[in-house]
Each structure stands twice: as C-alpha cells, then as structure tokens.
Amino acid sequence: MNSKAITAQQAPRITAQHKRALVAACIGNFIEYFDFVIYGYFASVIARLFFPAGSEAASLLLTFAVFAISYASRPLGGIIFGHLGDRYGRKTPLAIAIMLIAASTTLIGLMPTYQSIGIAAPVILTLARLVQGISVGGEYGGATSFISEYAPANRRGLYTGWQTFTIGLALLVGGAVASLLTAMLTPEDLHSWGWRLPFLAGLPLGFVGLYLRLKLEETPHFAEVQKTADVAPAPLLAGLRQEWRTVLIGMGLIAAPSACIYIYFIYSPTYLSVVRGMTLADAQRANLYSLMFYCCLLPGFAWLSDVVGRRPLMIISSLAIALVTYPAFHLLGAGNFNHTVLGLCLMSLAFAPHSAAALCAMAEIMPTRLRYTCLSVSLNIPVTLLGGTAPFIATWLVSSTGDLQSPAWFVTAAAAASLAAALAYRETLHSGLRQH
C-alpha cells in the first residue's frame, strides 16, 4: 500500500484510538521535561547539596556538567531503542523507556546528599542521569514516530504539535511547582526536603503512561511494514547508508529547538538569579509567564502548519530567533521585572513557529521502516551537543568573557543551522509520511 492510499484512509475523522495514542505518546515527554526543568530551576540548590566547591560558579558548573553528561548517553539510547522499534514495533520500546525515565527520576528524589554519604552522592546522581539519558534517547524518536504514524494525515502537524505542547506544558508545570515550593517553603526546608518532592512525582506518572501504552495497538503504518515483510534487519546501518541526507536535514532542523528550550526556559531562571541578580522567586515567576505565553502559541502554529506547510514557519522562525535573541537578552538585564518578562516573551514568540512545525517535518521525511532510528539519531545528536551542554556553555561564556549577553550568540548560531536545514528541506504538507 502506498503513502497516498494510507493518507486517504486516515484523513476522514478523529477516533478514540487516535486520542489515546496521542496521550500515551506525550506523557513520556512530559515526565522527561518536567524533570529537566526541575533540575534547572533547583540547580543552585543541587549545586550546594551535591557539589560543594570553593565558589558558587564552580558548584554550578559541576551541576550543569552532570546535566550535560546525562545527554552523552542519549544517542546510545536512541540506537538501542531505535533498533527495537524499527525491528519489532513501537509499543514495547516505548513502554520500557517510560518506566526507566520514571524510575531514574524518582531515584534522584530519594538520593542522600554529599553531607550524608560524601563522594558517593554526586556519583549516584551522575549514574541516575546516565540511565535517564538512555531511556530519554529512546523515548523522543519513538514518541514522534508513534504520534505521526497514528495521526490523521490532514492533522499531522497539529498532532505532532501537541507533542511539542506537552514539552512546553511540562516546563510550565515544572516551573509552577518550583516557584510554588520556593515561595511557600523557607530556604532551610527547600534545601532539606522541598526540592525532592517534584522528582518523586515521576513514579506515578510513569505507571499511568505505561498503562496507556500497553493498551494501544501497533501503529497502522508500521503494521503495514510488518505485513509486507519490509522490516530492516539493521536499521541504523540502513539509515546511515540510505538516508544520511535526510538525517542531516533533521539534525539541522532540531538545532534551534535544542538551544532555545534549554537557554530560554531551563537555564534562564539560574541566569536571571545568579548573573542578573534577581531573586530566585522573581526569576522563576518571569520564566513562568513566558512559558504560559509559549504554550498558548503552539497549538495555533501547529494548526497553521497543516494549512500553509512546515517550511515557511521554520524559515521565518529561524530568522526571527537569530534577530531577536541578542536584543531580548539586553531586556533581561534592564533591572525591571516587566522588561524581563517582555524579553523572554519576545524570544518565545520567535521560537514557537519552528518548535510547532519541526517534529512533523522530520517525521514526514523519514521512511516508515527506518523512522524510529533515523528520528532518534536526528533528534539526539543535536540535543546532546547543543541542548545538554547549553547551561554549561552559557555559564562558561558569561564567566570567561564577562559579556552578560553572550548566551545569545550560542542560540543565534543554532538558529543559523536550522535556517540552512529549513531551506534544504522540501515541503511535505501534501506528500504525507514516507512509506518507502
């Protein structure tokens, strides 16, 4: 069956199965980014508890180094889970991934500090982050494959846009929880036990996601591949040999989101409080407002990608990110809370169109028999190189150059890579998912 026939079958209506598939796939992304934003918000707390050093900057660098190290295992997770997903189906790898994410997140919440067990504390924290990186590496490409293959063809942009929305929602909820705990608890209670509470939420969320994923059937697109015995025996080798151009375009498309999410939304509370001198509560509140604005924008731009296409949104947004970020960083240092919120919201507005369209564009250019693996490679390598290292690089740039706006140049370079990829990408709005 060709892609046009499948497109015609999927277009008519939204079913309960479509909705269950969407929720089941998105919940893993929610846990992943909820954990990462909590880690970012409480970086200064974790630095003191697990990495006591001679200076606050040194402690923060060690904390963000562990944040980056966890990303080193993401490509490995993508290869392992991608192989399983393209060989045997999407369901089982996604079920395993969500339980590993939930277990490692919960372990961080239960972990004793440096004062209790000494050097073992940062070692165990690092190991937990590595396991989390492996599972997340398999989660991201699998969830994108799952959603895009279940989505009605005429609403694929909107459906994959909800995956991006879930990431924004996780950042928003994580930020809200962190801000609430910071406001309600004394500094002593926050350092003693308060920071642990959000991490402990990972386990019940993981069980909910596992239940939903086990109840679903295999995606119709991959079921067709299995039916025709077109399963690739070595998906990674086949993908790198046959689809290397597509993989490179996908890596370029995800460069800007990798930098923007981690600089705009995860690093910014630490930046505003440590570098710009805002109180931690005000820094978190400003970031929270920008996240609310970002989340409100995503569904509209995702819907628009099903009308005008993926390519125009990504080109315009990449240009906007490159042009807006540096001036917006000046607003963050104006010493005025409203100006700070304005700066963060301007960056969110520039980023939202690309964020809403990129995952759908990437899924549509990958063939079904190799989609899980190719997406995992395309997603995990840029996120590892740009996203996982973003807080560390931003902290180092500010410390070494003395330029308080220097993190903006990092984002601008990533936007230039995404612009080049968007120009190389051929519009897929009317061609649909590649089946072969």
UniProtKB/TrEMBL annotation:
GO molecular function: symporter activity
GO CC annotations, alphabetized: plasma membrane
Domain of life per record: Bacteria
Protein name according to UniProt: MFS transporter
Biological source species: Izhakiella australiensis
Localization terms from the record: Cell membrane
The keyword Transmembrane helix appears for this protein: yes
Keyword tags: Cell membrane, Membrane, Symport, Transmembrane, Transmembrane helix, Transport
Domain Major facilitator superfamily (MFS) profile per the UniProt entry, residue ranges: 21-432
Keyword Transmembrane attributed: yes
Transmembrane residue ranges: 21-43, 49-72, 93-111, 158-181, 193-212, 247-267, 287-305, 312-329, 341-362, 374-394, 406-425
Cited PANTHER family: ALPHA-KETOGLUTARATE PERMEASE (PTHR43528:SF1)
Topology within the bilayer: Multi-pass membrane protein
Pfam families in UniProt: Sugar_tr
